[in-house]
C-alpha cells in the first residue's frame, strides 16, 4: 500500500497530457480508464479498455467492454497507478458548469444530490441590474422582496429540492456545503426584481462522486421565485404542532423540524429538571444565576438561569445560530434557515435529571 501511495504522489508531479489513468496490476495486466476513488478497501475504476501488456506491446483483451464498466481492485492486486492530467481531488468530485441569470424562476443546475453529499461552489461573472453591477457575493444592501431578505442583495443563493419550504443557502462566489436532503440543486440570484437585469454568473459545481446521477440529464421541475405565491403558500399552510421531550442532560435535542428565515414558532414548555445539586429542581425558566459560572458566562445563554429551556438553529453549513431563551412560553421569529434544536442551559450536565415537555407550533 505504501508503494502505491508513493507512486500516486510521484505521478502527480509528472503528469502528462494524456487523459486516461493507468492501473498496473501484479498479474501483468494494464487497465486504462478513470480512477474514481478508493471505497470499502478497494480502488474504483471506470474501465475504458483492458490491455494485457508484455515487454513490447499492449494488446487489447478481446471481449472487454469499452463502455465505461466500473471495476474494483484490492490494493494487493495493484502494482502501481498512474494518474495522468488530473489531481487526486479530481478523482473524488464530478464537475459541471451552469449559467445563472436573474430570471422569473430558479435555475435548474441539472444535478441530483443525495443527503450527506459534499458540494463545492465557485462562481464568477457580473449581472447588471439597471446601472448596478452585481457580483456573486452581492451588494452591501438587502432587498426585503428577495428570497433571502436578510442576505446581501444579488448574492448567488441555492436550494436542494423544488419544495418551497426547503431551506435556502447563501452561496456567494465560493462555498462548500453538505446536502441536508435528497433532491435537485437549484440556483438563483437574491433579488426581488428581475425585469431590468442582464448578464449571468458562471457557476462551477463540484459534487462528491457517488450521488444519484439518474435523471440529471432531464429537466427538473420548475421552482418559482415568485415571493408573493411563496408568502401565500406560507399563509395558507395548516399550522403544524409537535411535542418534543428535552432531557435535563440535553446539550442538543433535534426537534426534526426544518425552519426557514421569517417562520414564526410558538413554544409552550412544562415539566421540571434537576440542574445539578447546587441549583436543584427548576422549571423551564431555570434557576438563579449563582457561583463562578454566572460570572464567566460559561452557559450557552449566560443571562438565563441554569436549567432553563433554550434553543438554537443549526444552519446548513453546520454552524449554529446564537442560542436563545425559550422558558415556559415564547413566540419566536426564525433568524436563519436550518434545523431547530432544543437544549438545557447549563455548563455541567453530569448530575442533571428530569425533562421538559415542549409543544412546538408553527
Structural topology:
Blueprint: H1 2-13, E1 21-25, E2 29-39, E3 42-53, E4 58-60, E5 69-73, E6 78-82, H2 88-92, E7 93-101, E8 107-113, E9 118-129, E10 132-134, E11 156-160, E12 168-170, E13 174-178, E14 183-189, E15 197-208, H3 227-236, E16 241-247, E17 253-259, E18 264-275, H4 276-279, E19 281-282, H5 292-296, E20 308-314, E21 324-325, E22 329-333, E23 338-345, E24 352-361
Antiparallel strand pairs: 1-2, 1-6, 2-3, 3-4, 3-5, 7-15, 8-14, 9-10, 9-13, 9-15, 11-12, 11-14, 16-24, 17-23, 18-19, 18-22, 18-24, 20-21, 20-23
How do the helices and strands follow one another from N- to C-terminus? HEEEEEEHEEEEEEEEEHEEEHEHEEEEE
Largest sheet: 6 strands, antiparallel
Name the helicity range.
under 10%
Query: What portion of residues belong to β-strands?
Result: over 45%
Question: Judging by the overall fold, what is the CATH architecture of the largest domain?
Answer: Sandwich
**Number of beta strands:** 24
Q: Measured on Cα atoms, how large is the radius of gyration? A: 27 Å
What is the H level of CATH, i.e. the homologous superfamily of the largest domain?
A: Galactose-binding lectin
Structure in words:
The protein is mainly beta and 362 residues long. The chain folds into three domains: 2-86, SH3 type barrels (Roll); 91-225, Galactose-binding lectin (Jelly Rolls, Sandwich), CATH 2.60.120; 238-361, Galactose-binding lectin (Jelly Rolls, Sandwich). Helix content is 10%, strand content 45%. The strands form five sheets. Strands 1, 2, 3, 4, 5 and 6 form a six-stranded antiparallel β-sheet that branches. Strands 7, 9, 10, 13 and 15 form a five-stranded antiparallel β-sheet that branches. Strands 16, 18, 19, 22 and 24 form a five-stranded antiparallel β-sheet that branches. It is flat. Mean pLDDT is 79; it is low at 9-18, 50-67, 212-217 and 228-236.
Amino acid at each position: 500500500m505504501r508503494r502505491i501511495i508513493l507512486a500516486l504522489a510521484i505521478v502527480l508531479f509528472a503528469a502528462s497530457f494524456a487523459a486516461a489513468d493507468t492501473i498496473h496490476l501484479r498479474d501483468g495486466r494494464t487497465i486504462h480508464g478513470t480512477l474514481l476513488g478508493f471505497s470499502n478497501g478497494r480502488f474504483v475504476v471506470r474501465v475504458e479498455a483492458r490491455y494485457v501488456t508484455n515487454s513490447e506491446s499492449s494488446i487489447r483483451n478481446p471481449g472487454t467492454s469499452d463502455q465505461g464498466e466500473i471495476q474494483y481492485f484490492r490494493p494487493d492486486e495493484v502494482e502501481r497507478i498512474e494518474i495522468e492530467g488530473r489531481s487526486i481531488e479530481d478523482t473524488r468530485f464530478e464537475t459541471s458548469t451552469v449559467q445563472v441569470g436573474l430570471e422569473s424562476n430558479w435555475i435548474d443546475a441539472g444535478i441530483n444530490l443525495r443527503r450527506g453529499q459534499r458540494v463545492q461552489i465557485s462562481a464568477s461573472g457580473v449581472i447588471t441590474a439597471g446601472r448596478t453591477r452585481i457580483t456573486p457575493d452581492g451588494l452591501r444592501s438587502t432587498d426585503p422582496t428577495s428570497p433571502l431578505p436578510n442576505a446581501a442583495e444579488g448574492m448567488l443563493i441555492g436550494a436542494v429540492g423544488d419544495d418551497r419550504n426547503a431551506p435556502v443557502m447563501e452561496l456567494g462566489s465560493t462555498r462548500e456545503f453538505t446536502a441536508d436532503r435528497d433532491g435537485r440543486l437549484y440556483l438563483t440570484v437574491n433579488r426581488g426584481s428581475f425585469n431590468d437585469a442582464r448578464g449571468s454568473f458562471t457557476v462551477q459545481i463540484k459534487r462528491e462522486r457517488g450521488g444519484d446521477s439518474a435523471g440529471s440529464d432531464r429537466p427538473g421541475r420548475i421552482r418559482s421565485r415568485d415571493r408573493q405565491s411563496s408568502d401565500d403558500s406560507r399563509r395558507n399552510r395548516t399550522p403544524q404542532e409537535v411535542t418534543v421531550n428535552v432531557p435535563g442532560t440535553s446539550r442538543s435535542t433535534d426537534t426534526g423540524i426544518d425552519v426557514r428565515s421569517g417562520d414564526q414558532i410558538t413554544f409552550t414548555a412544562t415539566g421540571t429538571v434537576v440542574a445539578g445539586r447546587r441549583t436543584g429542581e427548576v422549571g423551564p425558566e431555570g434557576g438563579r444565576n449563582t457561583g463562578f459560572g454566572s460570572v464567566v458566562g460559561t452557559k450557552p445563554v449566560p443571562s438565563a438561569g441554569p436549567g432553563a429551556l433554550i434553543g438554537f438553529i443549526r444552519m446548513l453549513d453546520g454552524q449554529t445560530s446564537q442560542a436563545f431563551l425559550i422558558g415556559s412560553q415564547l413566540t419566536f421569529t426564525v433568524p436563519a434557515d436550518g434545523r431547530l434544536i432544543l437544549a438545557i442551559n447549563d455548563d455541567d450536565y453530569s448530575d442533571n435529571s428530569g425533562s421538559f415537555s415542549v409543544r412546538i407550533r408553527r
